[in-house]
Design goal:
Blueprint: E1 9-13, E2 19-23, H1 27-35, E3 42-44, H2 47-58, H3 67-73, E4 76-82, H4 83-93, H5 97-103, E5 113-115, E6 118-121, E7 124-127, E8 130-136, H6 140-147
Antiparallel strand pairs: 1-2, 3-4, 4-8, 5-8, 6-7
Helix pairs in contact: 1-6, 2-3
Length: 154
């Protein structure tokens, strides 16, 4: 979430040559993902906190991302990636016991969530091209470190 930028951030150059602002806590992870040939389309080091800041900055009291959403996602990071890259990442992480225990079980305290929005248009129903991976923000450093030592299939 970059409207407004609520977390300290650093400007990075993507593999495609674009300049983007990345939350500081996410920088090592994003750089490692890019070095592994994975594409990211958005990220946030704490979705709940960022959502609250957007609501406060825009004077929103109802509607957009309510208090339950904010409470649920406080302390949770976001990686938005093309679906194929998200699945490649998850497959690689299954080889790391610490992360296999976080991505395989469903709906446990430290378990990851992945969702792919549904798109409706012109009489068609489809899945969005990007998946959103949510995981506890505390896992960001461990994730960046784990990715330096595993193979990600192309």
């Amino acid at each position: 979430m970059t409207d407004p930028l609520v977390h300290p951030h650093k400007e990075l150059t993507t593999p495609a040559g674009d300049q983007v602002n990345i939350d500081l806590a996410m920088v090592p992870l994003i750089e490692t993902l890019w070095n592994r040939g994975l594409t990211t389309t958005a990220c946030c080091q704490d979705v709940g906190e960022a959502t609250r800041a957007v609501r406060n900055a825009q004077g929103i009291t109802e509607g957009y991302m309510g208090e339950d959403f904010i409470a649920y996602y406080t302390g949770w990071a976001l990686l938005k990636m093309p679906c194929a890259d998200a699945l490649r990442l998850l497959a690689a992480l299954r080889t790391v016991p610490l992360f296999a225990a976080r991505i395989e079980p469903r709906w446990q305290e430290q378990s990851w969530r992945m969702n792919v929005p549904i798109i409706y248009g012109q009489g068609l129903v489809d899945l969005a091209p990007d998946a959103m991976l949510h995981f506890p923000s505390a896992q960001i450093p461990e994730l960046a470190q784990a990715l330096t030592s595993i193979h990600v299939r192309s």
